[in-house]
Design a protein that fits this description.
Helix content is 22%, strand content 24%. The chain is of the alpha+beta class. The chain folds into two domains: 151 residues, Alpha-Beta Plaits (2-Layer Sandwich); 93 residues, Elongation Factor Tu (Ef-tu), domain 3 (Beta Barrel), CATH 2.40.30.
């Protein structure tokens, strides 16, 4: 007699384990005890410096932002997080490890007499997963949900071995989505030309910050003449190349919008590069007047 016992369904594949990103470091900004007693907090400090509104962080949502030069060019880009200990007066910055000390120094220049401590917190790490959960408090990357889940968490002994595989996977995933990041790719580029609007890295309603004048003017005029675009290395214009990645066959180019090949434009950037039909309507109206 044939065996009629149903074959059990295969167990679902486990979600990929979150990877620690060793090329990222965490900076903590918190008031001193005296400063906390006087109502000082990190959000008030950063709100007048960085490109984005740090208000939503109070609800647990990180934001993407940058510290610009006075001319509106990118110096540091980063994610700003709530403090993992629940301290509502403190904030954490998820930044490039290579330039974290430089960012600490730059922020400290603006601290003046404010009673704040600004320093790297090497007890915390940045974790990422492309498709699964990156930790108990992981959230979708605020730039683009397709970038995956991200979390800040205390480091354990298992997290301290320098394993570059997570960083390599993150870089390949990010570039495949056409998202630039870090000083090598977007340093010294006008912030809106790095696709900051499309990647949720700027607020036009929050008030003043360093580099706001040029940034707001470009937005008001709707004149972003160049863009950072990830292109095949073979199609990269060397004179306009910020950096190339031979192992991935990709490059990040800084191109005039009219010279960008539509085949190289990611879906999330397409609407920003569509011709503004209102311009043609305005020209037609003025010519008929």
């Amino acid at each position: 007699m044939a065996d009629t016992t149903p074959t059990p369904a295969p167990a679902p594949a486990p979600a990929p384990a979150p990877a620690r990103l060793f090329h990222r470091a965490v900076i903590r900004i918190a008031p001193t005890d005296d400063g906390r007693a006087e109502g000082e907090n990190a959000a008030k400090f950063l709100q007048g410096l960085v490109t984005n509104d740090v208000g939503p962080i109070a609800s647990g949502t990180p934001v993407y932002a940058a510290l610009l030069s006075a001319q509106g060019k990118a110096m540091f880009d980063f994610l700003v997080w709530p403090d993992v200990t629940g301290d509502s007066t403190a904030l954490l910055i998820d930044a490039e490890a290579e330039f974290a000390d430089d960012l600490v120094k730059r922020l400290s220049l603006y601290r003046l007499r404010r009673k704040l401590v600004i320093a790297r917190d090497d007890s915390l790490g940045v974790f990422w997963s492309a498709t699964g959960n990156a930790g108990a408090d992981s959230v979708a990357d605020p730039r683009l949900p397709e970038l995956g889940q991200r979390a800040l968490a205390p480091l354990s002994a298992d997290d301290t071995a320098d394993d570059p595989s997570g960083d390599a996977a993150w870089q390949a995933h990010r570039l495949a989505l056409g998202v630039p990041e870090g000083r090598a790719e977007l340093g010294d580029i006008l912030w809106l030309e790095t696709n900051a609007v499309e990647l949720n890295g700027v607020s036009f309603t929050k008030g003043c910050y360093i580099g706001q004048e040029n940034t707001a003017r470009m937005n008001w005029r709707q004149k972003v003449n160049r863009r950072l675009v990830v292109v095949p290395l073979a199609a990269s214009a060397e004179a306009r190349r910020k950096i190339g990645y031979e192992d991935l066959g990709l490059a990040v180019d800084h191109l005039r919008t009219e010279s960008i090949d539509p085949a190289h434009v990611p879906i999330w950037l397409l609407p920003a590069l569509q011709p503004d039909s209102s311009d043609g309507d305005d020209q037609a109206d003025s010519s008929s007047a």
